[in-house]
Every structure is written in structure tokens, then in C-alpha cells.
Amino acid sequence: MEKSTIPVTTETVGKRDLRLTVxxxxxxxxxxxxxxxRKISAQVAIxxxxxxxxxxxxxxQRYGEEHLREQVAEDLTREFYRAxxxxxxxxxxxxxxxxxxxxxxxxxxxxLPLPPVVRLGDYRSLRxxxxxxxxxxxxxxxxxxxxxxxxxxxxxxxxxxxxxxDLLHIQVEGRTDQGELFLKDDDAEVILDPEDTYPAPGFxxxxxxxxxxxxxxxxxxxxxxxxxxxxxxxxxLLALYSRILPELDDDLARTAGPYPTLEALKEDIxxxxxxxxxxxxxxxxxxxxxxxxxxQAEVEYPSFLLEERLQDLMEDLEKRVREEQRMTLQDYLKVxxxxxxxLQERLRPVADLQVRxxxxxxxxxxxxxxxxxxxxxxxxxxxxxEAWGNRAEAMRAQLETSENRENLGAQILYxxxxxxxxxxARGEPVPEPVTGGEDETP
Length: 442
Hints:
Blueprint: E1 8-13, E2 17-23, H1 26-43, H2 56-63, H3 65-88, E3 97-103, E4 106-113, E5 117-119, H4 137-150, E6 153-156, E7 167-176, E8 181-191, E9 215-221, E10 230-244, H5 250-256, H6 262-296, E11 298-300, H7 303-324, H8 329-336, H9 340-368, H10 374-386, H11 392-399, H12 402-425
Antiparallel strand pairs: 1-2, 2-4, 3-4, 5-11, 6-10, 7-8, 7-10, 9-10
């Protein structure tokens, strides 16, 4: 087939989608129609003719021109698509979709994705101040108070009703306005804390004064993100205990762990809090820096990436609703008064941001020449396997699958990219880019 004989027109659709219309020369169509007719003649008994001997005109009259053209179109679609993109020098980023077929004259219309284009701009000048991290004496006291609470001594409370600070052993049920059971626990132990808002604001205030054996039923207004505006709770108090808190002294420190003194416990609390807050600060800083990178970048991508990410978000939500609410996504949407279309529109900006973030970080990896070696993946597998002790070999075998090695490689690359971006944003020395400063995806 001569490339120049294929009439092709292209039209940009959206940012990085292309509509491709290919017209099949009528001479080739007629040639293929005769081939299809011969195939039919060979396979189907035509009255008055032996198999394979019915002339083209008889097949055409019996089956109709449209039927033959439909078969030709089905047979030629892939061939002419490939020929057209080769002729036009087009490199699709993913599979094309066949949008329309016209039989006479025969034309195919495809929509195909083009590679994303990402321009990061002068990302090397990006600077973001790292937030200060500190641990105050009040922070340490809060942890010490938690340790006191955890080591409280329980004694049955006699001759009085429940009061703040008590431990209550209860049976509880919660039902929505529609009568649907959303909370049930026949053996719950809770601390009566008036500030606690779970499962609804006012729940623990409603338990004050209860005595063992007593049952109460009450209604409460539910938080806005719940399935019902109000809910009815039934609570039976099985047992009531007062909690005697220990003193903050060396004895408590020795009870809490291998600490000879209260001061040693406080120092370890300070160290752990500092480590935790530094880790949290770095994670928050990474999110802020990545957002700055995305905000200053110019990102164009084909529409299927957005639709795929949107579908992933929908599936994640459906799984979460099924596990947490024990209902289907459709039923959940009915309860909150939304349609599937409403949900998709709400999630679309989230999906768009995630796609742009993925592409921007991928371009940064390319621009900085960041790679992941097989040795690095091997080292990660080794580290992850060792943590499983006597099950290390089984875990290693699982991690060694091609899919898991690929996932680990992607995770390691992401970590490298974020580390590099954080170093840039903090003004730390980093190696020079190895790609000559290109700022557009190939």
C-alpha cells in the first residue's frame, strides 16, 4: 500500500487528544468487497450454484452492498489505522478509540491520545521555607497524662451514677432515622468524656448519672458527614468503674517502661515526639513543595488519563463505603442525596490534580536524570523481607514477582524525586541536571 494514497485529516480535540479521519480508497473497498463475496460463496450454499461458484453479482444481490461494506470496514479498520499514523508520523500515547464509521465513501474516525507535555519552568529556583519543629513542656505533660490514664486502677463505683472520668462497660445500638442499624456493640468499654464527639456530639453527656443495669434511649443530631440528620441510641450500662490515677513519679516511669526515673521517661518522650514531628513536618513540607511545583508547571495530557484516575477514585470510594458503611455506593449516594454524576463532578478536580502531580514528578525525574537500578530494588526487597523474621523467604518470593518489583521500583523513584525536590526547595546543594535542561516530555 502506498502511504501517499491514504487521505487523512487530523483535528486537535482538547489538550492532547487527536481526531484522526481516514478515507479508504474506493478501489480498495471494491477489491475487498469481492474478496468478502468469494469467502461467503465458499462458506454458504447458494441455490443454483456449487460452493465457491456463485458470482459476485449474486452475492451482492442476496446480501446487499451495505452488509459487504460492513464486513470490509471491520476487516480494514486496524490496517488503515496503523498505516495512517505511520504516514502522519503520529506516536499515540495509548490505544485509540474508533468513534465513527462511514460506509460510503468509507471513512474511519478515531480519537487517539498524544503524549503529555510538561513544562516545569525554572524549578531549580523553587524555594520554600521549612517549618520549625519543637516540643514544648506542655506536649510532654500531655503524653504523661495519657500514660497516667492508661495505668489507672479500676474500682467498682458504688452508690452513685456515672460521672466524667469513669470507665463504663456498656451495650450500645445506634439507628438512623430510617431505622438502619449503624452501630452495635454488646461489650464496649468507654471512658465518659464529655468532650468526646463520637459517635455523636452529646453522646457521653447523655450517659452521665447512669447506674449499673439502667437502660437509656435518646436521640441526637448527627454530624453533617453522616448518613442521617439524627440518630436514636439505646445504651445499657453493664458495669461502672471509677479510675484512680497514679502519681507522676519514678514508680510510674518504671511501670511505663525501662525508665529508672521520671526524668528519663520525659527525655524519651521528648525524643520520640521530636522524631514524630520532624517526620510529620517533612511530609507536610513535601506536599507543599510538590504543590508549588505543580502550580508553576504547564501540564497538558490526554483525556483518558483523567478518566482512568477518576475511575480509580470511584472504585476506592466504593470499597471504603462497602467496608465502613456496609452498603453499596448507589445506596450511599441515595442516602446523602447525590447522584453518580454529582460524585464524579466532585471528584474530577481531585483526579485532575493527581494526574498533573504524577506527570510533573515524572518530568522532574527525567529532567534530573533520576533512575532506579535493579540492585536498589534487590536491597529494598531484602530490607522488607528481613522484617518478617522466620517468614522472610516467603515474603521475598512474593516481592520478587515482576509486578511487585515494578511497584517497588516506582516507590523508590518517587522517594528519590521527592528527596531531590525537597533539597532544591531548601536550597541545599544538588547535582546538576543530566538532560541538558530540557523541559518538555519527549
